């Protein structure tokens, strides 16, 4: 078994589109965005200015991905990264490969000098919450998350 975690590249467009749709529609039960929208998002991340995407490849197939978006924190007066996505196919959950994908995000943020990496997960995603706690992540208690659609 040959596995690799690497930056997403233009040749990954089709595979990333497929796994991102699996994540959006099958896992989170959201409406399917058009392939054009998903592919535009992926292509935006190739230049690594607004964010970056990592892929988990196993035996030549994309079986997971993680997305970091770059922004700033007034409280830290510094740049931060938001891990918007960390997704692996079911067979890879709670595996060393999932841990390595998560650690690739952390290492990238450290190497690039980000003040921190933050993220949210669904209140119902108990498996992810357990995974993050096992990885020594600290659950926020000081802020209430709001959004508007």
Radius of gyration: 15 Å
What is the number of helical segments per DSSP (H or I, 4+ residues)?
A: 4
Order of strands across the main sheet: 1-2-3-4-5
Instruction: Please mark out the parts with pLDDT under 50 across 5 or more consecutive residues, or reply none.
Output: none
Overall mean confidence score, pLDDT: 95
Q: Approximately how much beta-strand content do the residues carry?
A: 25-35%
| Topology-level CATH name | Aminopeptidase
Distance between the termini: 43 Å
Q: Would you identify the CATH H-level superfamily?
A: Gcn5-related N-acetyltransferase (GNAT)
How much helicity do the residues have?
Answer: 25-40%
Structural class: alpha+beta
Compact overview of the structure:
This protein has helices at residues 13-27, 35-45, 96-111, 126-134, and strands at 3-7, 51-58, 61-73, 78-88, 117-118. The protein is an alpha+beta fold and 149 residues long. It has a single domain, classed as 3-Layer(aba) Sandwich (Aminopeptidase).
Short descriptors:
globular; 5 strands; 149 residues; 26% strand; single chain; Aminopeptidase
Task: Summarize the helices and strands and which ones pair or pack.
Layout: E1 3-7, H1 13-27, H2 35-45, E2 51-58, E3 61-73, E4 78-88, H3 96-111, E5 117-118, H4 126-134
Parallel strand pairs: 4-5
Antiparallel strand pairs: 1-2, 2-3, 3-4
Helix pairs in contact: 1-2
């Amino acid at each position: 078994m040959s596995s690799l975690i690497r930056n997403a590249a233009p040749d990954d467009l089709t595979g990333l589109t497929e796994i991102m749709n699996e994540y959006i529609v099958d896992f989170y039960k959201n409406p399917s965005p058009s392939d054009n929208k998903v592919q535009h998002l992926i292509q935006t991340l190739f230049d690594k200015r607004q964010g970056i995407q990592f892929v988990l490849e196993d035996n030549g197939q994309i079986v997971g991905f993680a997305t970091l978006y770059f922004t700033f924190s007034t409280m830290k007066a510094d740049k931060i990264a938001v891990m918007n996505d960390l997704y692996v196919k079911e067979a890879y959950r709670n595996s060393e490969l999932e841990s390595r994908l998560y650690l690739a995000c952390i290492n990238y943020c450290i190497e690039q000098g980000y003040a921190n990496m933050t993220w949210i997960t669904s209140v119902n995603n108990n498996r992810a919450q357990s995974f993050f706690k096992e990885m020594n992540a600290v659950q926020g208690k000081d802020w209430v998350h709001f959004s508007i659609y």
